[in-house]
């Protein structure tokens, strides 16, 4: 296994959150690949039941078991686990109460949904507990089964309640296995071995949710990781052209002449008008990115930037994003 200095030396649990649509599942998968590069073994955990990991790695829906989904560059492997709440609850009842058969009966009767609805803190402690168990698990020789675990966590608006299970479970259990389990989870989540990373777009709402989420986690003492800016749109025009587009002073006649000189005389005026409108939209988007970048610059956390992939997201793109994260020191 190759040694490498990163921003997160010593971190074994990487929790990835972000506003819906910001690409947190994609970033979590890319981070898992980056962490596995060079001979490491990484577990990627999904807790929302969307099977997003399977789609990214072009796999059939994942069962409730850990399964290898990818080989990382220079060796190493990524395993994945899609946590099923019902199966995890049955496993939990078997582990702490020897009630496996009762758990299956509860599933058939719909009691599991009822219990996790009236006590959502129990659902979260089960999901986070499964992940923290993977972080602590060891081989017979004492080494860790996984060098790192990456959790594709719930969105930013719910991440504090999801991770702060001790607080959420306080009204449900003051002692006993549930309380002990919650305490064990929190020892992992609050430790220096955990980092919560935020994924954002350079847009107003995702950036605001990132700022709010970092503030909320800080207030309850949970460990903040880095900020991943996803799908950055690179400027395609020179600074003078961007300024002209923003001010509405683009030389549209010059564009018409250029089109005609290139042999595109048919509908040159209409084409130039469309291009000018696209330039204005691009200039506005670039200006927005600049403003939101300034807002993020107030944070002390490391920041990583991932480009917008022009051909869309596929397995090759995932490896490209993993390489970008490694180049910037995230893994």
TrEMBL record:
Keywords: ATP-binding, Nucleotide-binding. GO terms for molecular function: ATP binding; ATP hydrolysis activity. It comes from the Bacteria. The keyword Ion transport does not apply. The keyword Oxidoreductase does not apply. Residues 13-186 form the ArsA/GET3 Anion-transporting ATPase-like domain. PANTHER family: ARSENICAL PUMP-DRIVING ATPASE ARSENITE-TRANSLOCATING ATPASE, ATPASE RV3679-RELATED. This is Arsenite efflux ATP-binding protein ArsA. It comes from Thermomonospora umbrina. The lineage of its organism: Bacteria, Bacillati, Actinomycetota, Actinomycetes, Streptosporangiales.
């Amino acid at each position: 296994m190759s040694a490498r200095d990163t921003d997160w030396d010593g971190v074994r649990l990487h929790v990835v959150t972000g506003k819906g649509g910001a690409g947190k599942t994609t970033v979590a998968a890319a981070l898992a690949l980056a962490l596995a590069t060079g001979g490491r073994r990484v577990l990627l955990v999904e807790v929302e039941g969307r099977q997003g990991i399977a789609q990214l790695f072009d796999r059939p829906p994942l069962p409730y078991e850990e399964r290898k989904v990818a080989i990382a560059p220079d060796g190493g492997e990524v395993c994945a686990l899609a946590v099923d709440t019902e199966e995890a609850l049955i496993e939990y009842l078997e582990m702490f109460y020897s009630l496996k058969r009762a758990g299956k009966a509860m599933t058939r009767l719909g009691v599991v949904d009822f219990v996790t609805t009236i006590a959502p803190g129990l659902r979260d402690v089960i999901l986070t507990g499964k992940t923290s168990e993977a972080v602590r698990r060891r081989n017979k020789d004492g080494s860790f089964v996984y060098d790192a675990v990456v959790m594709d966590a719930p969105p930013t608006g719910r991440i504090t309640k999801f991770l702060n299970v001790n607080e959420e479970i306080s009204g449900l259990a003051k002692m006993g296995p549930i309380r002990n389990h919650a305490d064990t989870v929190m020892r992992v989540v609050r430790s220096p071995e955990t980092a919560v990373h935020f994924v954002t777009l350079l847009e107003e709402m995702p950036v605001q949710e990132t700022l709010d989420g970092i503030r909320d986690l800080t207030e309850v003492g949970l460990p903040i990781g880095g900020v991943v800016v996803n799908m950055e749109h690179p400027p395609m025009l020179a600074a003078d052209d961007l300024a002209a587009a923003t001010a509405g002073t683009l030389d549209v006649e010059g564009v018409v002449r250029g089109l005609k000189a290139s042999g595109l005389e048919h509908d040159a005026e209409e084409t130039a008008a469309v291009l000018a409108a696209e330039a204005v939209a691009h200039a506005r988007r670039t200006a927005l990115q600049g403003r939101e970048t300034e807002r993020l610059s107030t944070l002390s956390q490391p920041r990583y930037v991932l480009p917008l992939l022009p051909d869309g997201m596929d397995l090759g793109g995932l490896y490209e994003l993993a390489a970008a994260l490694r180049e910037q020191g995230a893994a």
